[in-house]
Write a structure and sequence with these properties.
The complex is a heterotetramer of chains A (318), B (321), C (514) and D (387).
Chain B: H1 2-5, H2 11-27, H3 37-59, H4 69-84, H5 92-115, H6 121-139, H7 149-152, E1 157-158, E2 161-162, H8 163-180, H9 183-192, H10 194-199, H11 204-230, H12 241-251, H13 263-282, H14 287-320
Helix pairs in contact in B: 2-13, 3-8, 3-11, 3-12, 3-13, 4-5, 4-6, 4-11, 5-6, 5-11, 9-11, 12-13
Chain C: H1 3-6, E1 14-23, E2 26-36, E3 41-45, H2 52-59, E4 67-72, E5 75-76, H3 82-87, E6 90-93, H4 105-110, H5 123-136, H6 153-166, E7 171-175, H7 183-198, E8 202-206, H8 210-216, E9 219-224, E10 227-233, H9 239-246, E11 270-278, E12 286-291, E13 295-300, H10 306-313, E14 321-326, E15 329-330, H11 334-339, E16 342-345, H12 349-353, H13 360-365, H14 369-372, H15 380-394, H16 410-423, E17 428-432, H17 440-455, E18 459-463, H18 467-473, E19 476-481, E20 484-490, H19 496-503
Parallel strand pairs in C: 3-8, 3-9, 6-7, 7-8, 13-18, 13-19, 16-17, 17-18
Antiparallel strand pairs in C: 1-2, 1-4, 4-5, 9-10, 11-12, 11-14, 14-15, 19-20
Helix pairs in contact in C: 5-6, 15-16
Chain D: H1 13-20, E1 58-62, H2 68-86, E2 95-98, H3 103-115, E3 120-123, H4 132-140, E4 144-148, E5 158-161, H5 164-178, E6 182-189, H6 195-213, E7 217-225, H7 230-243, E8 250-253, H8 258-267, E9 274-277, H9 282-290, E10 295-298, H10 302-317, E11 321-322, E12 326-328, E13 333-334, H11 339-342, H12 366-369, E14 372-373
Parallel strand pairs in D: 1-2, 1-3, 3-4, 4-5, 5-12, 6-7, 6-8, 8-9, 9-10
Antiparallel strand pairs in D: 10-13, 11-14
The chains are: A mainly alpha (318), B mainly alpha (321), C alpha/beta (514), D alpha/beta (387).
Bound molecules: adenosine-5'-triphosphate (2 copies) and magnesium ion (2 copies).
Chain lengths: 318, 321, 514, 387
């Protein structure tokens, strides 16, 4: 029974992602074309990049609710800096640096001061957003380089590869994160830290270091998403990250990574990203309005998790 | 004595609350004028009630949380203004019955999904969060509808006595009553260590479900209060209150891993959040800085509570030697 | 084999027949039968993972048996939850001391008697009931409003037992609930148990300590690999017989199944040194040196400072007075200790030791990853090799290193943790009661492992609550009393008697000159 | 697609006549379908109400945080207040509150403003009905409440806005002409639950229904919600296009989303459709120029919009009486004909300015005269460009 759940949990999200794709093709005649597939990939990859931080922080037993704010910050700064004539790469470095600081503060507060990660990152998010507004009053002039727009465009290409740059980037990043999880000291430490913090500490895992590194990673990747979104919408907007609060968490849990930490991984989240994107696409395809979409999405998330994301009963936790 | 010990956790937030009342008074005469107290109370009540609604689930531990608090309040507001009243069910009995009924139903749904189906609370309630939002829009696609006079009366004064005071008093009495029962002990036990509670014979699932029922009813009451205050329905009224309720519980010194705290701290923290904002309004500080300030205060509160907790533990171990 | 069958009257309090239960691939109970008569103390013995706790979980309705029958007073019974079991008159103290640290002693004990909202008794009566139950265990002194977290582990375990006594019970089940008790508490408990037997109530008693079973039990049922292989009356069993029955391996060794005393070895160089050390300011200070190849025992009644002593050495808490140093390098933090090769084995395996969801490999290698890695990168094969090597040394018995460690029995989990320590290439091992709740087979392995390590020149500090263990294994034993070093008994003076004397603070031979 | 006009019942002709009785003849054309924004239009709302004496404390009660449209609105109010102050008619500082989407909070802020001694409260309300009790308090205390661009359904409030229904219908009719009454239309709405969004959408629907009655074949095949945010609009549009292979001949976009919609079409390999917008963002004009769209947009920067509401407020504070509580006005329109009067080469797809052209007035000040009785001389104010 234990085993069964584990097996189901492993295969399920991936099977689901594939199955859903066929379902969409069935219910929506004419969906099967390159552009549809490309925009699915594009949207999934934007979500995927934003969800890396969420996955890693959840793996160590935390949470990152500041992702939307950091996305917004990076998005705005990209336009502002580049618009002000700063070379995009310099701009990127500056943005990543700022993001890193935010991540550091998150990790430090959550681990060293032992404050609840959920609330800490919520608070940090509200500080960051407030700062953006206070700085820009919502008026974000500026511009983004054309190639960036191309990178995040469905019809964009990457050299010989017939895929938008962001998708290629995502594929590379996926490989990177999976290697980090499975084949690096940090990766093993992340899982230990999440599985049993007290034991990890006694076993000599540098907990503070791990937490700070993970939160810095999370913030930096959120910033990357923010930069890419500047290219996606062609303009800057502090609230551009808002949708990613719910969707990143949804992607992680639908992928089957329990919020209790130490189990799961980014591979599952990748599947989760596809499932979430496909679901919302399907609902749009079925012509549901906002109200209907939200209701269905709500029930679907719970239903899916109830199928394979259930917690062990108390009696087995004794 | 025990009564006091069980409430020590709320000390800091109560102090802060008093401080902010004084600051507000200094900031503007308007705040002192009794004519405005009702308005203030009406403004603060939803913060307080949603905060209290959030407390039960968080106390019940194992990552307990109820994201659906805000949307449920919104849904009740829409139901009253756009369904009950238009159909002529605008007498106190049917509206209050409906409110409590919806609250119980929602609490049962969340509670069963979490305690019986064993879906992680944050996910289960994320589901209902989205669902309720959708239903609200379905019922009430745009602001409208109306509240009966008696209901609007809750937001007015009756011979210098704000109606809202009645609502809050009612909740307080109910909770104080509940605290005298075994429920609080069971809740704290389940939140502290579910395995210990289970093996010593506590009906853990039952306690969890009760906690979410409590949350549902309180959130629904918040919806009732919205309807009284707005005198109408608005599909977007509930949304912001999920986050503020979580923030308030954290501010209120309730340990977010469950097991320690109560409604008092949460309610006080809810009022505090409201007073911070009024202070900014009175002091003419830009809303932009309010966002920053919320964040900073929340962090500071967390840090303080954690520090207090650490001191307490150190004392414990000092005794242990 | 089933004694119950030959004894029709008086009616059996509990009769379980051919219970079977699997967990995934592991068979926890194969064909387990148990018959408990009213007014008897019934011992349940078996190696780690032989199914004792599972049987008890079934008697509490925590897990359900897949097949087999359960009868109370001769009538078939279905127990679906601990609550139902309590109603049937079964009160259980589980293996882990499950109490709520935040809560007062009183609330901890009343917990579970109430309904969801209905209180069982008025506050005043509650207090009376609680005091009565505590008095039965000689804890009348305890302030019942005090948070349980402020009590020592032993006291917590006793509160757990008192909580069970508070229920209206006819069968009291103790699953290794004496593992943390010191002699004084244990004797008091046993006295109480005998009283209960006298007024016709029964006790099911799980322990890995043969001495306890011999002194206490009227009847002993032996589990092997999930099957009850025998049930013998008081006269009919002895330690050796039980060992023989429960161990699949036939060589049931010397008295108490312990290895023969280690031959005395010449001290190596000085590894660890304390000077002017005291457990709290004001207490007499003392110096201490740990030499290579030495096994030094640490003993004391629960809560007399010996654990704090270990934690200071492991850098887990600052030394109140004096300095701890490894070859002149001071130890101020846990990281210092690890850097200097001082590794610590915590007492509570479940909460401080294992990473339950992770594989044995990950559990064993977690402490030595940087050494195995090249530029932070790891190949799985490197990890597996290292893990297998260490498990080999620690005699871990398992089906595969890729399995989650939670699927190992407690004893093997313990060995896996020892393997983790070895993987760090330690110079000093600080072990906090490593044999707690480990069955004799596993113990024998662990003794040999420790002896071997000492022979390799590792210094070992061993805290144990089992005096025999200390006598057999250690070159000297430091005995703590009232947060001070009461005595240091040398190999020549080591005997249970002298140890007990020192633990109770009576000046015996070799009392340390502070 | 859910029948969109389920929630509101059309009042009888008699009722309409009664409501519109006091609306000036020349303005009536802008009042069609007013009932989607307000239950009824009150005649002589301030008959026995009297403004406070100057100097006035001017206040603004806002509901939404952070976009440049709102920023311009508040900035303009500040400048206008200063103009009054120069004439000794007002205190120089503008008191501003912002509830960031929390309606209950906005209500208590409104009450606080009344208590703080505001004499004129301008507002961009977050709810059509939620503020009424606060507005009533204000009214009783002789405080004027003027809502800008978004209508509140309370008898004591003065609303100065464009009729969202009229806007939606106007766009709808223009689209239908542009696509010759046949083809598929996608509605990119703002935020679900807001009355502007709703009324606009109904306006479109009625236009389409009317055309179909004349034997047209146009229909609305999708309702998307872009939250007035480019990236969201683009995301929703991409998902929609991926799942709707049928051709899209026009998009009805309601503010700040035209560029995102267009990009989505292009990137999904679709021909650029007819696109209407309601905000005159420079970025949209730049995009328009780049791809020479077949497009249309209203001119309604936040600044000029604030000014348009401020003028009637001054009429009232000067002592004149409004004939009705809802003042609807038309808006300038940018289309192919006058595109060059508004477009400037400096505009890019990223620029956040508004293309207001030469004249910042949305309507000549004289437009409002017809809504008032009495001829008290009102203070001199002039619309100014916001920084
Ligand atoms: N919840 C569980 N999930 C999976 N396997 C389990 C579970 N509980 C017990 N087992 C398996 O059943 C076997 C018997 O477990 P049990 O706890 O009864 O052993 P035990 O006799 O109590 O051992 P110990 O002396 O260590 O307490 C164990 O070896 C374990 O593999
Ligand atoms: N959730 C679980 N999954 C897998 N195995 C489990 C689980 N829970 C318990 N077990 C196994 O059941 C066996 C006995 O469980 P128990 O908790 O009694 O072990 P233990 O008491 O720690 O062992 P010991 O008696 O040596 O201390 C152990 O081998 C443990 O690994
Ligand atoms: Mg056991
Ligand atoms: Mg055991």
């Amino acid at each position: 029974m234990h085993l069964l759940r584990r097996v189901a949990g492993h295969g399920m999200p991936f099977a689901l992602a594939v199955a859903l794709f066929f379902v969409i093709n069935l219910v929506i005649p004419g969906y099967a074309n390159l552009n549809s597939l490309l925009s699915l990939l594009l949207l999934a990859s934007l979500l995927g990049l934003a969800a890396i931080g969420q996955t890693l922080t959840i793996l160590i037993g935390g949470f990152d609710m500041s992702i939307p704010a950091v996305i917004g910050l990076a998005n705005v700064l990209t336009a502002l800096l580049y618009g002000a004539g700063v070379p995009i790469w310099t701009a990127a470095v500056v943005i990543f640096a700022i993001a890193a600081v935010i991540g550091f503060l998150n990790g430090f507060a959550a681990r060293y001061l032992r404050l609840n990660p959920l609330v800490v990152t919520l608070a940090m998010g509200s500080i960051v957003l407030g700062a953006i507004w206070a700085g820009t009053h919502g008026e974000v002039a500026g511009s983004v380089p054309n190639w960036l727009v191309q990178t995040v465009s469905v019809i964009g290409r990457t050299g010989p590869i017939p895929l938008p740059g962001v998708v290629v980037l995502w594929i590379v990043v996926i490989a990177g994160v999976l290697l980090l999880e499975r084949r690096s000291v940090l990766g093993r430490w992340i899982f230990a830290a999440g599985a049993n913090p007290r034991a990890a500490e006694l076993a000599g895992v540098p907990m503070l270091g791990v937490w700070i590194t993970v939160y810095v990673l999370s913030a930096v990747l959120a910033a990357l998403t923010g930069i890419l979104l500047a290219g996606f919408s062609g303009a800057a907007d502090p609230s551009v990250g808002a949708p990613y609060l719910v969707t990143t968490v949804a992607a992680v849990v639908v992928g089957g990574t329990p919020l209790t930490g130490g189990r799961g991984g980014y591979g599952r989240t990748v599947a989760g990203c596809f499932v979430v994107t496909e679901l919302s696409t399907l609902l749009v395809g079925l012509g549901l309005d906002q109200a209907g979409q939200q209701m269905c999405l709500g029930f679907l998330i719970v239903a899916l998790v109830a199928i394979y994301g259930r917690e062990a009963p108390l009696s087995l936790r004794l | 004595m025990t009564w006091l010990r069980n409430r020590l956790y709320a000390g800091p937030v109560l102090v802060a609350l008093v401080a902010f009342v004084i600051l507000n008074m200094l900031a503007s005469r308007a705040f002192i004028d009794p004519g405005n107290w009702n308005g203030l109370l009406v403004g603060a009540a939803p913060f307080m009630i949603t905060a209290m609604a959030q407390t039960g689930p968080i106390l019940s531990g194992d990552g307990g949380i109820d994201l659906s608090v805000g949307p449920l309040a919104g849904l009740v507001n829409a139901l009253i203004a756009a369904v009950l009243v238009p159909h002529g069910w605008d007498d106190p009995l049917s509206i209050i019955a409906a409110t409590i009924g919806v609250g119980l139903a929602s609490g049962l749904l969340n509670g069963v999904m979490i305690a019986v189906v064993r879906v992680q609370p944050i996910i289960a309630t994320l589901g209902t969060f989205l669902a309720y939002q959708g239903m609200t829009l379905e019922i009430l696609p745009m602001a409208g509808g109306a509240a009966p006079a008696w209901l609007r009366g809750l937001a007015e004064t009756h011979g210098h006595v704000p109606g809202m005071l009645g609502v809050l008093a009612l909740i307080a009495v109910a909770w104080l009553g509940l605290e005298r029962t075994a429920f609080r002990r069971n809740l704290v036990a389940v939140g502290g260590d579910a395995r210990a509670a289970y093996t010593s014979g506590v009906n853990v699932a039952g306690v969890r479900i009760l906690a979410y029922l409590m949350s549902g009813v309180l959130a629904a009451l918040a919806g009732l209060v919205f309807t009284a205050a707005l005198g109408s329905g608005d599909p977007s009224v509930g949304m912001p209150y999920t986050l503020t309720s979580i923030a308030a519980v954290a501010l209120g010194g309730v340990t977010l891993s469950g097991g320690r705290g109560g409604l008092l701290g949460a309610a006080a923290a809810g009022a505090l959040l409201f007073l911070i904002q009024t202070l900014f309004t009175l002091a003419q500080v830009s809303i932009f800085y309010l966002q920053i300030c919320y964040g900073v205060i929340l962090l500071m509160a967390l840090a303080l509570n954690a520090a207090g907790e650490r001191i307490r533990r150190r004392r414990i171990f000092a005794q242990l030697g | 084999m089933h004694r119950a069958v030959h004894h029709p009257a008086p009616p059996l309090l509990i009769e379980a027949r051919d219970l079977r239960r699997r967990f995934g691939e592991t068979v926890a109970l194969a064909a387990c039968s148990l018959a408990i008569r009213p007014g008897e103390i019934h011992a349940l013995v078996g190696e780690n993972g032989s199914g004792k706790s599972t049987l008890i979980k079934i008697l509490n309705g925590i897990v359900a048996a897949e097949s087999g029958t359960l009868a109370l007073d001769g009538a078939p019974a279905r127990l679906t939850s601990p609550r139902a079991a309590q109603r049937a008159g079964i009160a259980t103290v589980f293996q882990e001391t499950l109490v709520l640290d935040e809560m007062s002693v009183r609330d901890n004990m009343i917990l579970g008697l109430d309904g969801l909202v209905r209180r069982r008794a008025a506050p005043a009566r509650e207090a009376a009931m609680v005091r009565a139950a505590l008095a039965a265990l000689g804890l009348d002194v305890l302030d019942i409003e005090r948070p349980v977290g402020t009590l020592s582990l032993a006291r917590r375990q006793l509160v757990g037992i008192a909580r069970a006594l508070l229920r209206p019970w006819r069968l009291l089940i103790l699953d290794e609930s004496t593992s943390a008790l010191d002699i004084a508490d244990r004797d008091r408990l046993f006295a109480a148990l005998r009283r209960f037997r006298a007024d016709g109530r029964s006790i099911l008693f799980v322990s890995h300590r043969m001495d306890e079973i011999e002194t206490l039990a009227d009847q002993a049922t032996v589990l092997r690999a999930g099957s009850s292989v025998a049930s013998l009356p008081a006269g009919a069993f002895s330690t050796d017989i039980l060992l023989e029955l429960m161990s699949s391996r036939e060589e049931a060794g010397a008295a108490e199944g312990h290895a023969p005393p280690r031959p005395r070895r010449s001290r190596g160089r000085k590894l660890l040194s304390l000077c002017g050390f005291a457990l709290s300011a004001g207490k007499p200070q003392f110096d201490f040196d740990l030499h290579a190849g030495e096994i030094v025992g640490v003993a004391g009644l629960e809560g007399h400072g010996q654990v704090a002593f270990l934690e200071c050495i492991a850098g887990l808490r600052p030394a109140p007075a004096g300095a701890v140093a490894v070859e002149q390098a001071p130890i101020r933090s846990h990281r210092d200790a690890l850097r200097r090769g001082v590794t610590f084995l915590p007492r509570d395996r479940k909460t401080e030791g294992i990473f339950a969801p992770l594989s044995v490999t990950d559990n064993v290698t977690v402490s030595c990853l940087p050494r195995l890695a090249r530029w932070g990168a790891l190949a799985p094969s490197w990890l597996t090799t290292a893990a297998l090597a260490m498990c080999e040394r620690a005699r871990v018995r398992m089906t595969g290193a890729h399995l989650p460690i939670a699927a190992l029995s407690g004893g093997n989990q313990q060995k896996a943790l020892l393997a983790r320590l070895l993987a760090t290439r330690p110079r000093v091992l600080v072990l906090n009661d490593p044999m707690r709740g480990v069955d004799l087979g596993a113990k024998r392995d662990l003794y040999d492992v420790l002896a071997g390590l000492a022979a390799e020149g590792i210094g070992i500090l061993l805290l144990s609550t089992e005096l025999v263990e200390l006598c057999v294994l250690c070159d000297r034993v430091m005995v703590f009393h009232d947060h001070a070093l009461a005595a240091t008994l040398d190999r020549t003076e080591l005997a249970e008697r002298s140890l007990i004397a020192a633990m109770f603070g009576q000046p015996g031979p070799g009392v340390a000159a502070a | 697609l859910r029948p969109v006009d389920a929630a509101v019942a059309t009042p009888s002709a008699a009722q309409q006549a009664k409501d519109l009785a006091n609306v000036p003849k020349d303005a009536r054309q802008y009042y069609e379908g007013y009932w989607f924004a307000t239950d009824r239009i009150v005649s002589n709302p301030l008959a026995d109400w009297h403004p406070h004496k100057p100097p006035w404390q001017v206040c603004h009660n806002d509901s939404y945080l952070g976009n440049s449209w709102r920023a311009n609105l508040v900035a303009e109010l500040r400048l206008l207040t200063r103009q009054l102050a120069k004439q000794g008619l007002a205190k120089p500082n503008l008191i501003v509150t912002n509830s960031n989407g929390d309606i209950n909070l906005e209500l208590s802020q409104l009450k606080a403003e009344v208590a703080q001694g505001c004499d004129v409260i301008m507002s961009y309300p977050g709810s059509a009905t939620g503020l009424c009790s606060g507005i009533h308090d204000a009214f009783k205390k002789g405080v004027l409440f003027v809502s800008i661009d978004s209508i509140v359904d309370c008898p004591e409030a003065i609303n100065v806005a464009t009729n969202p229904y009229w806007r939606g219908k106007f766009e709808g009719e223009w689209i239908l002409k542009a696509i010759h009454d046949k083809g598929n239309i996608v509605a990119m709405n703002g935020q679900p639950g807001t009355s502007n969004t709703y009324a606009e959408r109904v306006g479109l629907q009625d236009a389409v229904n009317a055309a179909d009655a004349q034997g047209g074949h146009a229909k609305v095949i999708g309702d998307l919600y872009g939250m007035w945010t480019g990236s969201v609009a683009k995301t929703e549009m991409l998902k929609f296009l991926a799942t709707h292979p049928q051709p899209v001949s026009a998009v009805f976009s309601t503010g700040n989303m035209g560029v995102g919609v267009g990009q989505a079409l292009q990137q999904s390999g679709r021909p650029l459709a007819v696109i209407t917008e309601v905000t005159n963002l420079c970025s949209y004009l730049a995009y328009w120029k780049e791809n020479n769209l077949k497009a249309l947009t209203f001119v309604q920067d936040g600044g000029p919009m604030a000014y348009s509401a401020f003028v009637p407020a001054m009429h009232i504070m000067a002592g004149q009486k409004p004939k009705v509580n809802v003042i609807f006005m038309p808006l300038p329109i940018i289309s192919a004909q006058n595109f060059d009067d508004y477009y400037e080469p400096s505009m890019t797809v990223q620029s956040t300015c508004f293309a207001n052209g030469k004249d910042l007035h949305l309507v000549p000040d004289s437009y409002f005269d017809q809504f008032f009785t009495g001829n008290e001389t009102m203070p001199k104010i002039e619309v100014v460009a916001t920084p």
